[in-house]
Amino acid sequence: MSRRNFVLIVVIHRKTAVLGALLCYLMLFTGCGRQEPISSPTEKSSKSDIVESKQKVDEAKAKIDEVKTSVKKVKKPVPVVDALAPTSVIVRVNGKDITKGEFAAWERARTKIWAMTRGWKPDVTNAKTKKFQMRNRTRALGELVKHVLIAQYALTEGIEPAKEEIAAGERRFLRSVNKAKSAFSDVLVSLGEEEGELVRRVLRGDAVTMAILENSTSNDLRNVSAEEFTNRVEFVKQWNARADVTNQAVRARAAKAKAEILAGAFFADVAKKYADFAPEQGETWDTFYLDEFEGDNPLGQWLARSDTGDISDPLDLDDGISIVGIKMKYLSPISESNKPPVYAYDVVRCPFYAYETLEDFDGNRKAIVEDIIARRRQLAMRELHDRIVEKAKIEFPSGNNLFYPQDKAKKKGKKKAKSAGKSKSAGRSKSADKSNPVSKSNPVDKTGSVDKSDLGGGGGFGKKSLSENK
């Protein structure tokens, strides 16, 4: 009750002045008549609602955390072979077991060899080598089975390979991995203990195959006549001459494309206009780590002397000719422990088809003769393998669908059947497999780098961001 109300009571109740005075005393000195600041009902309810809402949110978070810890994460299905133990038998060839561990070692070996043939280090952990390995698993297992069959046949027939044949196979192997001047044993060590031993066995198997062929065919698989030698040399010379003329025209187109970029055109637009295949690579191609290259790889050598914004002259890559642009150069994550530092490069390119030239061996007669014999033997090898496989007993104790996830084997088969009729892209060279060792999927710390991708369209190259090829 307010003081105004109290006065009103005193006026109305004049006859009860004593009672009024008493009431006044009680109100004034007990605080009953004081006007206290109070919140509106709406404000009170709002505050209580906020508190209650926060409590509910906290309770919900606690329940979610409890569910996360109690429920196991669903694992992504893996191929059947990858779920097996290393000692599990995946193939039995005429009673001879091939384990998952042995197959995995062979997969690593052939993947490392594939990388070395492209001027990369023998690494199986980057995106490109993993992709190669996954795409060639069936072929890898077939090769391993084939060499087991050859070894069994040679043992049954008592056939031993000639030492000179083994040495010739080792020389061919070293040339194929760009290590012609290296010792064979050193290259095997670089592959790893298990992988190196398997490569040695496989090369010995090739030599055994030659010995078997010499005993089972009337064709001369060791000697080359003077006429055959001359014909081969002349064929290679004419082929390479035609290839050089064609490739010069391709390089001229590539140089014209580079000139347009230097004049101010966006890299992505030029790639759409000139690229013979994969024009989208003018907008984004891949990430390269300089330490993944070795030897005289043209791309690795150019990246080593280039910087952000540079555009290359036409480069000979394993899938044709390309002009390459660097969107960004930055320190790779491992540079903290490396001196000098290791750099990574985000690059784009404009690719062109090119004729593949044949190896002329710089006129080396011995190498040319070995090449002729190797080609002659390939056909005889196929015939021999077909004959041996036809008589072999090959079993798959772990199932036939080794390279499909267990719950997706049937779906995979259907998908393959549907896509089997798709036409292959035309071209004179291998399909674009983007010859680089590292992809963008690998996370990198780009702290401190300067991204110049906003200087132009698509590929990020405008006139201001370009410098001449170094």
Summarize the SSE layout with pairings.
Blueprint: H1 3-12, H2 17-30, H3 41-70, E1 89-93, E2 96-99, H4 100-117, H5 127-135, H6 137-157, H7 163-176, H8 184-191, H9 193-216, H10 226-262, H11 267-274, E3 286-289, H12 298-304, E4 315-317, E5 320-331, E6 343-352, H13 365-391, E7 394-395, H14 409-419
Antiparallel strand pairs: 1-2, 1-7, 3-6, 4-5, 5-6
Task: Explain what this protein looks like in three dimensions.
With 470 residues, this protein is an alpha+beta fold. It has three domains: 37 residues; 185 residues, Triger factor/SurA peptide-binding fold (Orthogonal Bundle), CATH 1.10.4030; 148 residues, no CATH class. It contains 14 helices and seven strands. 26% of the residues are buried.
CATH class of the largest domain: Mainly Alpha
What percentage of residues falls in helices of 4 or more residues?
Answer: 40-55%
Low-confidence stretches: 1-16, 28-39, 409-460, 462-470
Tell me the CATH topology of the largest domain: Triger factor/SurA peptide-binding fold
Please give the alpha-carbon distance between the first and last residues. 93 Å
> What does the radius of gyration come to?
38 Å
The tally of beta strands, per DSSP, is 7
**Which CATH architecture of the largest domain would you pick?**
Orthogonal Bundle
